[in-house]
Amino acid sequence: MEFMDSETQAPDDLPHLETNYNNPPALAPECKSFKWKIEVIDVDGNIEGKMMTSKDVWKMQNHQVIVHFDEDTGQPIGDSGGLLGSWLGQLSNDVHLLPINYTDWRLVSPHIKTRAWEVIQSKFRFDDPMMRKEYVMGALGSRCKDVKQRVWNDYKKSNLNETLQNRPDKIPEDQWSHLVHMRFTEKWKKMQERNTKNQKNNIMPHLCGRKSFSRKRDEIKTKIGKTPCRAEFFIETRKKQDGSFVCDEAKIRAEALTTLLSQNPQVTNNITASLDDEYSQVFGPERPGRVRCVGRGPTPSRLVKHSSAPRRQETENSELVVQLKAQVKALGDQVNGMSKFFQQILGTSTREQASAWAINFAAAFANIPNPPFVNIPNPPNPQEKDNGASG
């Protein structure tokens, strides 16, 4: 894959870019007036609940929106996640910060991405920035791809020269020229045909709209009181309000999933996905790169690491409990046997003395590190017993 110099080198004007982003980019669509219920934190650490639009975020100074994440999938949830996604969509329209003359977002200059990450962090607070950076920057890359596609659909013409002449006023000439020349290559045309063909295979569209899977899953969790598995999520997001499904195929798959869920109700306990769950039994195994019905971020390899660790720990704990119970039972049997044995030998000793002797003896020979030896009580003084009786 070929890249321009701007994709591997720092832009000349990068240090001179505007440091305070107080308004949406000129190319961005009009900000919607929808208000999100979120929390903001100031430079002194004071937290305050607010109702804010995405346009309010641009005007915000010395404050950051606190973004909440789902710990299971590492995806933003709630109104803060919705506000972050909406604002990233506007930021992606800043062609001076994020030029459109690149061929693959993954190989865009790290200098550009670093600057974009700094701008994002000036407006949003993350609990663990390094952990959340991969998801946030991936979401930004997806929004940038949408911007390129929207501009292309609005301004493309039937041939290369006409499209070059039809440049949008708000896009620099060098960026437009690179985009146009790239999209009129045979390589791009073949890729577009392949993508169009693959898109036709999506015959069971979800009904989430612009809402992310993580936010929708969090809403379902609040509704039913537990994290929905992939099978439950599929059924919920393919069913209309009147109870019908988006298509006959979705209905057939939902019925198969419902049958499996009824046969194994105990497995759907706060587990988002696993490689052998009901969804995979109906739709087949996962392909590399992503996990279906989960959303951006989780991959099959990460899913295995995430799900196997708790199971492995649970197995180890169960085995340890069994071993300890067996040792306790064996030690108890030894104590009872030794207690009777020592009581017969000592004869005149008390039952308490015999038990203490038995416990110490069993502990010494039961391979127990640092055994809790018991103090053996002194035998009663026969003379004191006689004096007490005569008195």
UniProtKB/TrEMBL annotation:
The transmembrane residues are none
Region (Disordered) residue spans: 1-21, 297-316
Please give the InterPro entries that the UniProt record associates with this protein: Probable_transposase_24
* A Pfam family it matches: Transposase_24
Q: Which PANTHER family match?
A: OS10G0409366 PROTEIN-RELATED (PTHR33144), PLANT TRANSPOSASE (PTTA_EN_SPM FAMILY) (PTHR33144:SF48)
Name by which UniProt lists this protein: Putative transposase Ptta/En/Spm plant
Species this protein is from: Arabidopsis thaliana x Arabidopsis arenosa
